[in-house]
Amino acid sequence: MEVRTQQLTRYILPLREGGSLPVLGEADDGFKYVVKLRGAGHGKKALVAEFLGSMIARAFKFNVPETVLLTLSPMFGITEPDEEVRDLLRKSEGLNMSLHFLSGAATYDSAVNQTDALTASKIVWLDAFLTNVDRTRLNPNMMIWRNELWLIDHGASFYFHHSWRNPEAAPLDPFPYIKNHVFLPVADRLEEADRLMRQAITPRTLSKIVDLIPEEWLEEEESELTPSQRREVYRNFLHERLRNSSIFVAEAIRQKNLLGR
């Protein structure tokens, strides 16, 4: 399992659809990327969540754009006329998170695009596992590209790390926010999905993904936790959450049953 690192060479435009204000840029490999900037919103925590969520989703064999680390130089975006965007780029010098740009992709629309019950159940399971609050009907964070469903934007996952209070209890969170998931109404095979997803990944694979988090994203001023300790918190969260998946699966089933009342 490897992650490439490239240099951003051309700033194209800001992408204002999301709350974190990513930008579209071109790297020295000639490809375009959607760049999640460390200077935006929740900063490096959002990058960690995006990185882990994307890599884990790919490990489960979902379609996810390639995750690439992109370095941003002080001169990147200097011609941007918008002062807000220019300031954001200046705050984001260094290593940032990016996803390969899916040119020509269309936003998933639940009123138009159909998804089978097992696929829907697996994606509900994934987002409950990651505690991803942001795959709703209003904001599905999925694309249709080349007639296939692709998952994007996992930056709202792992919400426990915004406070770091009682991280030992976080893996046992039943995740009631699953009630807002775009696929919950059609997720009729959650117990089967739980069995299949648990078979599809191992704690060792999760550990390898956690080990790939860039060290500098785990650094935080005025924190009692070292980067190594933060890495271990993420590792423990994922291992324990996988071991206790029955908790969030039961909550998803409960919330689904409530939809029919």
Give the topology.
Layout: E1 4-14, E2 23-27, E3 32-36, H1 44-59, E4 67-72, H2 83-91, E5 94-100, E6 106-107, H3 117-130, E7 142-145, E8 148-151, H4 190-200, H5 203-211, H6 227-243, H7 245-259
Parallel strand pairs: 1-4
Antiparallel strand pairs: 1-2, 2-3, 3-5, 4-5, 6-7, 7-8
Notes on the structure:
With 261 residues, the protein is α+β, with helices and mostly antiparallel strands. Strands 1-2-3-5-4 form a five-stranded mixed barrel. Strands 6-7-8 form a three-stranded antiparallel β-sheet, with no helix packed on it. 36% of the residues are buried. The model has no long low-confidence stretch (mean pLDDT 93).
Question: How would you sum up this structure in a few lines?
Answer:
It is globular and about 55 Å long.
Characteristics:
261 residues; 3-stranded antiparallel sheet; 5-stranded mixed barrel; alpha+beta; 8 strands; 35% helix
